[in-house]
Amino acid sequence: MSTANTVHASSEPDNNYHYKRFTTGLLFRDMSFGKEAANPGDSFPPFELTTTSGDRLLSIDVFADKPVLFIFGSMTCPMTASAAPSVQDLYEEFGDRVDFIMLYVREAHPGELIPQAETMQEKIAHAKALKELYDIEWTVAADNIDGDLHRALDPKPNSAFLTNGEGIILFRSLWAADHEALRTALNLTLAGKTLERKQSDSFIGPVMKAVAKVQEVMNRGGPQAVRDLWTAFFPMALAGWIVAQFSKSR
Questions:
Q1: How far are the Cα atoms of 122, 163, 216 from residue 34, in angstroms, in the given order?
Q2: Could you read off the pLDDT of 197-232 as tens digits, one per residue?
């Protein structure tokens, strides 16, 4: 009999979830998992999502015989952009034995060009754009407008959660770009071994990987997204600008 705790998706709206401007406060919250985050050993929250093809994706159907890797992402997230190649590598190695699901969440850096979605139609459109932009071969599904599933797990911009076939969380990574941590967790899970390391909360490495994508992704969001990052996280904005200028000069 499972002794896992069940994490329930929130049914109460959060007025701060749909923030219009990225702030330093959000930056600090993104640096580590929250105290109320879903932990390894917990049951994954039940969900009903909409995929980019318009189908319903139900937790009762997802949790079957395979482990499942959930990845958070959005169009305005440089971490999502930098993680895309390594997640693709993981999919090519494990996709026949593990189900991959990209969960489209709120915009990490909303701006005039890509604001926070106000309707499910807008959110699905953003999810479709993400799938096409990064040529994602696996399922891409959008959380609902209130972000119930995202908030129940921990509303980080680009985290990853690995579950077994019964929907028990085995491993979580603060950033999906931590390729080696996720690869190790996947290998051990498929070998039927217990994971001694149940989470990765590395920050500096994944953020450094994202520097090359900062300028491109902020411009995608719009001028406000650019300004907000300069205000909230000056070092990363400056590093991203320098990398972009160097790339132009080559």
A1: 28, 19, 29
A2: 999 999 889 989 999 999 999 999 999 999 999 999
CA–CA gap between residue 192 and residue 169 (Å, rounded): 14
Structural domains of the chain sorted by starting position, each given as residue range(s) with its CATH number in brackets: 24-249 (3.40.30.10)
pLDDT in tens, 137-183: 999 999 999 999 999 999 999 999 999 999 999 999 999 999 999 99
Q: 103 — phi, psi (to 5°)?
A: -100, 115
Residue ranges of E strands in 62-202: 68-73, 99-104, 139-142, 160-163, 169-173, 199-200
Strands 169-173 and 160-163: antiparallel
DSSP per-residue letters across 178-245: -HHHHHHHHHHHHTT---S--EE---HHHHHHHHHHHHHHHHHH-HHHHHHHHHH-HHHHHHHHHHHH
> Is residue 86 classed as helix, strand or coil in its secondary structure?
helix
Separation in Å, CA 118 to CA 17, 107, 178: 12, 11, 31
The whole model's pTM is what?
Answer: 0.92
Cα–Cα distance for residue pair 70/66, rounded to 1 Å: 13
Q: Do the Cβ atoms of 73 and 103 come closer than 8 Å?
A: yes
- In degrees and rounded to multiples of 5, residue 228 shows phi and psi of -65, -40
State what percent of residues in the chain have pLDDT above 90.
Answer: 87
For residue 2, count other CB atoms closer than 10 A to its CB. 10
Confirm if 105 and 74 have CB atoms less than 8 A apart: yes
